[in-house]
Amino acid sequence: MGSLIAITGATGFAGRHAVATLMKRGHRLRALVRRPGAAELPAGVELVAGGLGDATAVAALVNGADAIVHLAGAITALNRSTYFAVNDTGTGAVTQAAREAGVSRFVHISSLSARRPELSDYGASKRAGEDHVAGQMQALNAVILRPPAVYGPGDKATLPLLRELTRPFALIPGRRDARFSLIHVGDLAEMIADSVSSAQQGIHEVSDGTAGGYGWPDLLAVAGTSRGGPIRALFLSRAIPASVAFAAETMALVTGRPGMVNRGKIAELYHPDWVSGETGISLANPITFGAGFPATLAWYRKAGWLPPASRADRSGSTSNRILS
Question: What is the distance in angstroms between the CA of the first residue and the CA of the last residue of the chain?
Fold first, then answer.
């Protein structure tokens, strides 16, 4: 019988992939979920009803567990205090419960945004969450993974950008000279599973291992090959998406429902360097964007999130232009 792994964030994009990978490796899973009836997790996953703010539920989650994978977090929020309530205070609650329960391994999934906490409330809250774990690294036998942009089947956050890369003329909200790392969600799930069984500690910026990360020309080349035709890119002035973000924030205050776009996210998008540093954690055969992008598009199309590829998209040159 495999180890009992407690997990938060199991119903999220990365969480579902992590659950599948951990179960494939023979682990038993216990997941903290807000609505057990709507969780749609695989049979055999033990469900604990509650959220990070429910001390009784968090204690039940970690009771008797061999390890915990803490994936839960707020990616969008109405305000700074909500980000911190989940990503900071929530992480503190999980670390305390894990210590009290004697859990022998703590795998914390943070974000590369934590490297630059001054850019956004999200990044600042993720950094604060890391501090709870880092301050007890030895006691928790903890490891912190900082993934960059995560993409792959099931992700709605990167869908708008990947949709742009299927068009002959792509509007890019970012700097033309930016460099960034990427990681396929399947690889992140494998790294999480590896980390559960490893004794490695510390903070690690994980990625698909592409040296120096990617630039927009790299993504456009892959997208052009996949599309079978040229893709021209127009890089939007920061003022344009910033105005959209301001309007989205105003609407969110009216509706009470946060959107994916806010001014902090725009600040992150226009930061020039999101290349992961030396990590010490890698995979032997990572999924590069060249392989992961077309596979992700195929999944989106099968799921109906993108229209089928047209015949017109299969003709023409594979050269690409970047327009200033």
Answer: 58
* Spatial distance between the Cα atoms of 181 and 224, rounded to a whole number of angstroms: 20
Distance between CA atoms of residues 23 and 44, nearest Å: 9
- pLDDT for position 1: 66
What does the alpha-carbon distance between residue 106 and residue 315 come to, in Å, rounded to a whole number?
Answer: 50
Token pair 């291992």 is at which residue? 209
Helix axes of 121-134 and 91-101: crossing angle, nearest 10 degrees = 20
Q: Six-digit token pair at 168?
A: 């002959």
| Strand ranges in 46-112 using DSSP code E only, listed in sequence order | 46-49, 67-70, 106-109
One CATH from 3.30.565.10, 1.10.3720.10, 3.40.50.720, 3.40.190.10 for 4-150+182-205: 3.40.50.720
| Cβ pair 263, 249 in contact under 8 A | yes
pTM for the predicted model, two decimal places: 0.93
CB atoms near residue 197 (< 10 Å):
13
Q: What is the pLDDT of residue 311?
A: 56
Looking at the predicted structure, is the pLDDT value of residue 256 above 60? yes
Chain mean position to CA 43: 24
Quick count: other Cβ atoms within 10 Å of Cβ 254?
A: 7
pLDDT value at residue 2: 81
CA-CA-CA-CA dihedral for 307, 10, 183, 129, to nearest 10 = 130
Q: Whole-number mean pLDDT of the chain? A: 93
